[in-house]
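TICKET: design request
STATUS: open
ATTACHED STRUCTURE:
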């Protein structure tokens, strides 16, 4: 009868010759692989991606300023790519406003139109006292001006669906390729009464109407950063003295 033997083990994870012998005979488990190579590979990949995308947020005029720092051939190729992107956006920019809807024209102006572009519909409050609905109306106008390749529409909810509960407004319907891709009932799904352009732009990205690297998003971010910086450095007056079925 085999009698178990207690083998002395100080630290089973230590890299010692004794532990190697114990692992060889199955007395202690194999040491798990070190995560360091995995971390190093992930870091290397992240650095490579950051380098490859280093021009991703640059406008055409900013690319011109990099001529002394970047390879000329690479810079020219990227400049042509950016010009092609801007040309595509320009050719698709045919809307530029919020379109009021009438029920008889809904199928044509929304469902059919979504085969050519994303269509966002705001079913607005019928009573006119819904703060979220009024807020979305203003934001809708800003979005329509900024992203004129996307069609933004608005319609009183009760004119679209008889008896539609006003408490469910504002309702956002997103159409693409003739189908409803997303439905949002009230702004509670976003940021409620604090919903802003950034929240709605993220919605555009989430449903595929915008790419996350769209230059119009980057432009806004830079402008906002510049404005914040200016406000921080500009002297105040006091410092001057003292220094579903929607077809």
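STATUS: resolved
RESOLUTION: sequence designed for all positions
ATTACHED SEQUENCE:
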């Amino acid at each position: 009868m085999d009698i178990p033997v207690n083998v002395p083990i100080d630290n089973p994870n230590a890299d010692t010759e004794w532990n190697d012998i114990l692992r060889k005979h199955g007395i202690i488990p194999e040491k798990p692989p070190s995560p360091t190579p995995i971390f190093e590979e992930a870091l290397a990949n992240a650095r490579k991606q950051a380098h490859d995308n280093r021009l991703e947020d640059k406008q055409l005029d900013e690319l011109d300023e990099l001529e002394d720092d970047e390879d000329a051939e690479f810079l020219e190729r990227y400049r042509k790519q950016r010009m092609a992107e801007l040309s595509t956006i320009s050719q698709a920019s045919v809307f530029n406003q919020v379109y009021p809807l009438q029920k008889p024209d809904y199928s044509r102006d929304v469902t059919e139109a979504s085969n050519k572009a994303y269509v966002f519909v705001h079913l607005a409050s019928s009573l006119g006292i819904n703060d979220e609905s009024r807020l979305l109306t203003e934001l809708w106008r800003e979005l329509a001006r900024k992203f004129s390749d996307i069609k933004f529409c608005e319609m009183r909810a009760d004119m679209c669906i008889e008896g539609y509960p006003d408490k469910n407004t504002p309702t956002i319907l997103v159409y693409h390729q003739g189908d409803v891709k997303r439905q949002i009932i009230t702004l509670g799904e976003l940021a409620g009464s604090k919903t802003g352009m950034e929240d709605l732009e993220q919605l555009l990205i989430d449903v595929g109407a915008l790419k996350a690297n769209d230059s119009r998003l980057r432009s806004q971010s830079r402008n906002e950063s510049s404005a914040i910086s200016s406000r921080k450095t500009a002297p105040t007056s006091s410092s001057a003295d003292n220094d579903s079925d929607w077809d």
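CLOSING REMARK: The two ends are 81 Å apart (CA to CA). DSSP finds ten helices and five strands in the chain.
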